Amino acid sequence: MSVDQPQIKQLKKILIIIPAFNEEENIVQTIEEVLKEDLPISIVVVNDGSSDATSAKAKTTKAFVIDLPFNLGIGGAVQTGFKFAVEHDFDIAVQVDGDLQHDVSYLNALLDPVIKDETDMTIGSRFIPPYLGYRSSFIRRIGIQFFAHLISFLTQYTVTDPTSGFRAYNRKMIRVFAAYYPEDFPEPEAIAVAGRYKARIKEVPVKMRKRTAGSSSIRYLRTLYYMIKVTVAICLDKLKERK
């Protein structure tokens, strides 16, 4: 018996993971935008040791809120979300940033390949036609292209937006990343980790927006550290795969 897409979604337990650090100006609107999509989902906000009112504001919504005692960084916050997904037996997890940069009207585009078992992990790319929305600064686009070429050279994946944190995962990848998720600037390295587990990865075109409040964690001299650290990590992951 065939089951249409809406019925399939009703049968899946879907968790939206929102890592948030000092996002008091954005977190409520982020959650509200997700809820407006009218999907059968649950939301968990992982408050990564914020010093502002991120947690208090998130708790005024329908989202679950996990308060980390201190700042672990994006990797630790996202891994906490994966652990929550495993503990509560979710079928699919979707990572959405808490800064409003991800246009959640594209949630279905991320979810559909996972629900149809066409892929283990989908990545929302701003660099696939029709190229909608904000595509990052010129300097960051150079870094994105560098990692895209590095990952394509070292792994079986051809990716256009390896730094995108707008992603969906099936049960296999939820369990993989609940056990281990890169700590610092994790998105490119996570693709290499997925390669060790022979994951099926697909990019889908999405729209992203420029941050309007708060500030990014990757700025100035940290950009150079980011480039070096992630490059070394990806190369080490490739060595682990061969071993």
Kindly describe this structure.
- This protein has 9 helices and 7 strands, in the order αβαβαβαβαβαβααβα.
- With 243 residues, the chain is of the alpha/beta class.
- It is globular and about 45 Å long.
- The protein has one domain: Spore Coat Polysaccharide Biosynthesis Protein SpsA, Chain A (Alpha-Beta Complex), CATH 3.90.550.
- It starts with a helix and ends with a helix.
Any chance you could write out the topology, listing elements then pairs?
Layout: H1 5-11, E1 14-20, H2 27-36, E2 41-47, H3 54-58, E3 64-67, H4 74-87, E4 92-95, H5 107-115, E5 121-125, H6 138-154, E6 167-169, H7 171-179, H8 187-196, E7 201-205, H9 221-242
Parallel strand pairs: 1-2, 1-4, 2-3, 5-7
Antiparallel strand pairs: 4-6, 5-6
Name some characteristics of this structure.
243 residues, Spore Coat Polysaccharide Biosynthesis Protein SpsA, Chain A, 9 helices
The biggest beta sheet is recorded as:
7 strands, mixed
Cα radius of gyration in angstroms: 17 Å
CATH top level? Alpha Beta
Total domains, how many? 1
SS element count, helices? 9
CATH topology-level fold name: Spore Coat Polysaccharide Biosynthesis Protein SpsA, Chain A
Q: Can you say what the CATH homologous superfamily is?
A: Spore Coat Polysaccharide Biosynthesis Protein SpsA, Chain A
Shape: globular
How many strands in all?
A: 7
Low-confidence stretches: 1-8
Helix content: 40-55%
DSSP strand (E) fraction? 5-15%
Sheet with most strands: strand arrangement:
3-2-1-4-6-5-7
Structural class: alpha/beta
Under the CATH scheme, the architecture is: Alpha-Beta Complex
Average pLDDT rating: 88
Quaternary organization: single chain
One letter per element, helices H and strands E, the order comes to HEHEHEHEHEHEHHEH
What is the straight-line distance between the termini? 44 Å
